Amino acid sequence: MVTPYVFRVFSSRNYSYFFFGQIISRMGTWMQRTAVIWVVYTITHSLLMVGIATFAEQFPSFFLSPAGGITADKYDRNKIVIVTQIVSAVQAVLLTVLYYFGWHSIWLVLFLSLILGVANAFDVPARQAMVNDLVGNPDFLPGAIAMNSSLNNFTRLAGPALAGVVMAAYGATACFAANAISFIAVIYCLFKLKIPKHNEAMTRNKNSWKNFNDGLKYTLNNKEIGKTLLLAALVSFLVVTYNTLQPYFAHDVFSGNAATFGYINGATGLGALISTLAIASQKNGSKLKRMLFFNLILLGFGLVVMSYVHILYLYLIMSLICGFGAMSTMPICNTIVQTVSSPEMRGRVVGFFAMATMGMIPLGSLVIGWLAKIIGPQNCQFAQGIVCLLIVGAFFRFFKREKQSTIL
């Protein structure tokens, strides 16, 4: 049960505007993302192309998130997020208009996804680092991070499920249009925020390379942050990318349509939401690593079992279980990273976190799409479950050593 402890963050006017603007925008983003993946798969029938589509949207984070972190530490974070949201809105409008008028080119979709990826590389570090500025009270930060994760996982649940229904009834264009419209809410809310300026003097007087080097040294020298990022990177690259294979199961194993794909994504999102709410209910960090340890074990065994299920309802149950295990990695690791890092380094550390997660997922999606062509999607998903269990074993000592300063 989620306690009132978490909901204290809504006493902040700024955070309330931010949260409700984001929830509408993220719904639209997940609708568009689901529609893009389904369109790519139904046109090409290639999991490799699905991996390339994921790569195009998310890989810019691998290269540009450190630059996004530096930018978040140097300049007004709210203005950065406003600019990135406007760019994302323009991308959504272009995708809607071009697809409506019959430009169903895979390469056009990939190009527009690449533009969105570049915007996200600067958006994520600024938006996540801005949470501390929004809540004001440092005691509210863990709860705010947990609520952000709940927001992301709720929209991950509702967005794909709604996208499946909308695509089945009206086509992919309607999903693209819904995303374009959703940006009105988030941009309005961002303009309503009143955030005190953070200390920019310490970074504006340095060049970008110096800022990057300082952030990298700080991250590597802090063992808690370094190991957390390594774990997040391995899980993001080798395990979480099992989602790349889901169009195959929806279309080929269950002979389904866009709605079936939406149900699978929705079940995964429901598991992710339940997981995040369980994390949010924790009042301190004494059980976070232990929770992550058991969740990753659950994910590993879940993937092994799910790989050869041929009954849709049972597959949806397993998708929920795997979503519960998989999506706890990011909020727990994000909480550890943000609570351990110093305020003047937080933007850069979050940039490296985005690089380790959002940057590694597209690389993993390419590898998984390629590997699925060689050994088959079901065998590939089975192997990912085994790899997940091996990662848990490799980080066993990390899970045992709980950081007392991490609070939630």
Could you please describe the fold and organization of this structure?
The chain is mostly helical and 408 residues long. The chain has one domain (4-400): MFS general substrate transporter like domains (Growth Hormone, Chain: A, Up-down Bundle), CATH 1.20.1250.20. The protein is 81% helix and 0% strand. It has helices at residues 4-7, 13-44, 47-58, 60-74, 77-100, 106-135, 141-170, 172-192, 201-204, 208-221, 223-238, 246-253, 258-280, 288-306, 312-326, 329-340, 346-357, 360-375, 377-394, 396-400. The protein is globular and about 55 Å long. The two termini are 14 Å apart. The model is unreliable at 403-408 (pLDDT under 50).
Fold topology:
Blueprint lengths: L3 H4 L5 H32 L2 H12 L1 H15 L2 H24 L5 H30 L5 H30 L1 H21 L8 H4 L3 H14 L1 H16 L7 H8 L4 H23 L7 H19 L5 H15 L2 H12 L5 H12 L2 H16 L1 H18 L1 H5 L8
Helix pairs in contact: 2-3, 2-6, 2-7, 2-8, 3-6, 3-18, 4-6, 4-17, 5-6, 5-8, 6-17, 7-8, 7-13, 7-16, 11-16, 11-17, 11-18, 11-19, 12-13, 13-15, 14-15, 14-19, 16-17, 18-19
